[in-house]
Design a protein that fits this description.
heterodimer; A: about 525 residues; alpha/beta; six-stranded mixed β-sheet; 17 helices; disordered N terminus; disordered C terminus; B: about 325 residues; mainly alpha; two-stranded antiparallel ribbon; two-stranded antiparallel sheet; 13 helices
């Protein structure tokens, strides 16, 4: 987390390559964008900020031709454009790098990069040599550690993202939009992305950069524009502003992470993990979580943190070791037993593991505790509504109605529904795996406050995170993992960032677990 | 989803298939004088009850993300058992028939659950194998029911309603309640919609899959018994192609092959659509082969229309 916010760059003085003027987009019943202005200059990184639901994605979809604006104009390189579809926009040189990746897992890197536009020879045959050469030229610019013939499905998430960027480069773009590009990247993978963005800038490409992470935005951008509730609140030069001002612009108030409000009264051990091992995944993991305590588990992606959580939850079978819950050796054989015994797991991937996207908000909320809303085996609609309303209010979930499909909600609201689902099971132990990944600042701090309040009311909480501020801000104790082992345990109020980084990157000698 | 909102305070949506059912109902009542008579309407219900009963179970299996191709063979086996075992006792024969269906369903469910092999393949195998069992058991002979109580039952009525129609409608109501009001129903949707998230929520996937396969097996066997009682006989080829008619009805009713979405009300619409079309065209004296061509064309067009109508939902507002 050394991305300092001091080296902000001076604004680039040039005529904009892209201008959006007075964009208004209405959906039935909602004005998603109201008279929004936005422009990008060649060679600059223009950050676009706003809480989830502020209209960033909609604005970018208008720009990339997925949506058509009801009012307003798009001017690209001095020419007024009306993009009818994404292909049209791409050809004109506007490329969107998706938050969700759209790659064909079974194909090679080269085939993915040139998907739909493979170079051809006579008789419509694929020109494999040209494909290879073109791909290598692009990979050269990306400087990433994979080959043109690697199968995309075998690459890590970070590398897949590079492939996605490579695909944008194949179009010789004039404007590239990055939507939350670092959401799934670890801290040491980010510089690679920054280098790619910088080199695009040097080539005169205009970059639109959407992110929730302040450090990145201050590190990368020249200018920052903010949207709030579909309205344009202003543009500032990065060099002339600070996080407080931006936060105020985004949410209309100033906001600081309150590190002092951690829980402080602990009871007996709620969870005790003893020498837990899953062969070839993690080894000899021991730690404990007390009632009323938040324990942070910090480590890089792939260190085995999620796997430890899954094993506690009964989704993986341990080779050796024990899981002790509230004094009893439990070693759950399946997730059902874990849930019944009072363990809740808020999974890493909301969409794949946490929610039934096609179901409405209420049904998702009661999914893990149907018996509590049923009598004689039949669910009572009124009781379900009661449960939903309770958590809907308590967690300030923003949705027009309980009938809304959760797939249509923003990340923050989706996560609140997952947490609400678990709170209603009245768990003894709450495990949160990356609870605020891809969530906007406002919801993030709400979730942090919620987690602390839960611990204070007696829950034992285990938080898995790869974000250092989150781990430091929440945890009473921090367990560091590296390469399938617990490398150190720290007091959450009294730890240096350096020591933490060393512990999770395998540097220095392995500290003994206390 | 296409819906006519404001109906029942926006809570209930009218599915496209019901619009279609009402349309063809009106069409045929103008085309044929006989169509609207009580005798004909109850006749449609009796004719569709066989496919309809199986479709109820199939709806649950498909919402659950699976499919059962062996229902036609299960029906055939149950029919043969129900008639063939009557020499011992009629109650025993019927119980054995129903039991065989549930057992085959449980077996399908168990294999799909424990091995993870696709339900399409497992039940395709079951379809072939069970049909083989029927020929083994019957020695390629048709059985005729000697007990008149059995064959009278299929033709009996309660007041103005044929018994079979009543059985079908009552089962429809029960399955609708099971699907919409019970935890099993909700979990069936959840597992079909996202198995991983269902596991995370502590839902016992395998158990719900098993139950649904047992339910469809039971309904296939029940349909077999009722069909045999209607005909007073069972032939070894009984139930061939029924799986296709059943799946057609369920899909017409809006249940998605990918799981996670569907309803019994829709399935009832799909079943009635097929029943009314067959009956109506029959009354209009359309030759049988044309009826098949028309039904096939209608299946595809209804799904195309449904897809077109559903397209805007992809652009729903993100909040």
């Amino acid at each position: 987390m050394n991305a300092s916010s001091t080296q902000s760059r001076q604004p680039i003085d040039a005529a904009p390559i892209l201008e959006l003027q007075g964009i208004t987009k209405r959906f039935p019943g909602v004005v998603a964008l109201n008279n929004v202005d936005f422009d990008v200059r060649p060679g600059e990184v223009h950050a676009l900020l706003g809480e989830n639901g502020a209209g960033k994605s909609t604005l970018m979809k208008v720009l990339a031709g997925k949506h058509q604006a009801n009012e307003g104009t798009i001017v690209l390189g001095g020419q007024e454009m009306a993009f009818e579809n994404p292909k049209h926009a791409k050809r004109a040189g506007v490329v969107l790098i998706h938050q969700e990746q759209s790659l064909v897992a079974e194909m090679t890197v080269a085939e993915n990069i040139f998907l739909g536009s493979l170079p051809r020879k006579s008789f419509n045959r694929v020109d494999w040599r040209k494909l290879r050469e073109d791909t290598n030229a692009i990979l050269e610019r990306l400087k990433c550690g994979f080959q043109h013939d690697d199968i995309v499905g075998s690459l890590s998430i970070a590398k897949k993202q590079m492939v996605e960027i490579g695909r944008a480069l194949a179009f010789t773009p004039r404007v590239v939009v990055f939507d939350e590009p670092t959401a799934s990247l670890t801290d040491h993978e980010k510089p690679v992305l920054y280098d790619v963005i910088n080199s695009l800038c040097e080539q005169g490409v205009g970059i639109v950069y959407i992110s929730h992470r302040m450090d990145e935005i201050f590190h990368l951008s020249h200018r920052i524009s903010v949207l709030r509730d579909g309205e344009y609140t202003g543009t500032v030069n990065t060099a002339d502003t600070n996080e407080d001002e931006i936060t105020r612009m985004m949410i209309g108030r100033s906001l600081t992470l309150d590190h002092a409000s951690k829980p402080s009264e602990f009871g007996d051990n709620m969870l005790e993990v003893r020498n837990l091992t899953v062969k070839r995944v993690f080894e000899d993991v021991s730690f404990n979580v007390r009632k009323g305590e938040i324990v942070g588990m910090y480590g890089l992606v792939g260190a085995g943190r999620s796997e430890v959580a899954e094993t506690i939850f009964g989704l993986r079978k341990p080779s050796t070791g024990d899981v002790v819950l509230d004094g009893d050796v439990v070693n759950f054989r399946n997730s059902h037993d874990a849930v019944v015994s009072g363990v809740a797991l808020v999974p890493e991937d909301r969409k794949d593991q946490g929610l039934i996207l096609g179901m409405n908000c209420r049904d998702n909320m009661t999914l893990a505790s149907l018996s509590s809303v049923s009598s004689l085996g039949f669910m009572t609609s009124a009781k379900e509504r009661e449960v939903y309303d309770k958590y809907h209010q308590a967690m300030k979930i923003k949705t027009p109605s309980w009938r809304q499909k959760v797939g249509n909600l923003s990340g923050g609201n989706q996560q609140k529904i997952v947490i609400g689902k678990w709170l209603h099971t009245q768990p003894k132990l709450l495990i949160l795996d990356e609870p605020t990944r891809g969530i906007d600042v406002g919801s993030k701090s709400e979730i942090h406050t919620l987690v602390k309040d839960l611990a204070k009311s007696g829950y034992a909480v285990l938080v898995i995170s790869s974000e250092m501020p989150e781990v430091l801000g929440l945890s009473n104790r921090i367990i560091a993992m590296y390469d399938g082992r617990v490398t150190a345990e720290f007091d959450g109020d009294n730890v240096s960032e350096d020591a933490l980084v060393q512990a999770i990157t395998g540097m220095g000698k392995q500290a003994q677990a206390s | 989803m296409m819906s006519i909102k404001g109906f029942f305070r926006g809570k209930t949506v009218i599915q496209p298939i019901w619009v279609f059912v009402i349309a063809i109902f009106i069409f045929f009542s103008f085309m044929s004088e006989y169509f609207l008579s009580w005798g004909n309407i109850t006749n449609i219900l009796v004719q569709t009850s066989t496919i309809g009963l199986i479709a109820l179970g199939m709806t649950l299996v498909m919402i659950n993300g699976n499919i059962d191709l062996s229902v036609g063979a299960t029906l055939g086996l149950a029919a043969s058992l129900a008639v063939g075992l009557q020499e011992f006792s009629m109650t025993f024969a019927i119980l054995a028939a129903l039991g065989s269906g549930m057992l085959l369903g449980a077996l399908n469910g168990l294999i799909v659950w424990k091995t993870g092999v696709n339900a399409f393949i497992v039940t395709l195998g079951a379809m072939l194998g069970v049909r083989g069992l029927i020929f083994l058991y019957t020695g390629e002979q048709s059985f005729y029911a000697m007990n008149f109580a059995f064959s009278d039952f299929g033709m009996s009525t309660v007041g103005p309603m044929p018994t079979l129609a009543i059985i079908f409608l009552v089962c429809t109501l029960i399955m609708h309640l099971v699907l919409t009001r019970t935890g099993h129903g909700r979990n069936t949707f959840a597992v079909g919609g996202n198995p991983e998230a269902s596991i995370d929520a502590g839902i016992r996937l395998g158990r719900h899959m098993m139950i649904n396969f047992i339910i469809v097996g039971f309904f296939a066997a029940l349909a077999g018994v009722l069909l045999a009682s209607q005909m007073g006989a069972a032939t070894p080829n009984l139930g061939r192609d029924y799986e296709l008619w059943v799946i057609t009805a369920v899909v017409l009713g809006g249940t998605k092959l990918t799981g996670g979405y569907g309803s019994i009300v829709g399935t009832l619409g799909g079943v009635l659509a097929i029943g009314i079309l067959r009956n109506g065209m029959n009354l209009m004296q359309v030759p049988a082969f044309y009826v098949l061509v028309i039904l096939g064309a209608i299946l595809i067009s209804v799904l195309i229309i449904d897809k077109k109508l559903n397209a805007p939902s992809a652009k729903e507002v993100r909040i």
